[in-house]
Design brief:
Layout: E1 3-7, E2 14-19, E3 25-30, E4 36-41, E5 45-50, E6 56-61, E7 66-71, E8 77-82, E9 86-91, E10 97-102, E11 107-112, E12 118-123, E13 127-132, E14 138-143
Antiparallel strand pairs: 1-2, 3-4, 4-5, 5-6, 7-8, 8-9, 9-10, 11-12, 12-13, 13-14
């Protein structure tokens, strides 16, 4: 139904319904302080939501379906993985695109290392890449997975 829901752990009541996507919601992730939630969607966007109000505070637009969206451990950045083969790093506070990194196939997942120094991606091109989060430069490409 193109929405995400936030549920209370004790009792399971719905605390918020996040409406605004125009396609399936594939993934979601809380910010480290739980004040925000980021969602990834078939509608070619990731959206950052205020948990307190349930309102969308930022829309991060892509050229393909967004399969994953993850906050950095600092909570300042969001990385997205997309059908168009790009991992994109965004500033969460204003939605500014900091860099994009291209694989030769769809990117299914992108996430941060524990110290936020690296972004790791997993792609349909049978590779994973370790990308410097400050520069967007690939530090290491891991090859060898085969279908």
């Amino acid at each position: 139904d193109c929405t995400a829901h936030i549920y209370e752990l004790d009792g399971g009541s719905c605390l918020a319904q996040l409406c605004g996507h125009f396609g399936q919601v594939y993934a979601c992730c809380f910010s480290p302080d739980y004040s925000e939630l980021v969602t990834a969607s078939e509608d070619r966007s990731a959206r950052i939501w205020s948990v307190a109000t349930g309102t969308c505070t930022q829309q991060l637009q892509s050229q393909g379906e967004v399969y994953s969206a993850v906050f950095s451990h600092s909570g300042k950045m969001v990385v997205t993985a997309s059908q168009d083969g790009f991992a994109r790093l965004w500033l969460g506070s204003n939605g500014e695109l900091l860099w994009s990194f291209k694989h030769d196939g769809e990117i299914y997942l992108a996430t941060f290392s524990c110290d936020d120094r690296l972004v790791v991606t997993a792609s349909e091109d049978h590779t994973a890449a370790l990308i410097n989060s400050q520069t967007g430069e690939c530090e290491l490409r891991l090859d060898g997975h085969r279908a």
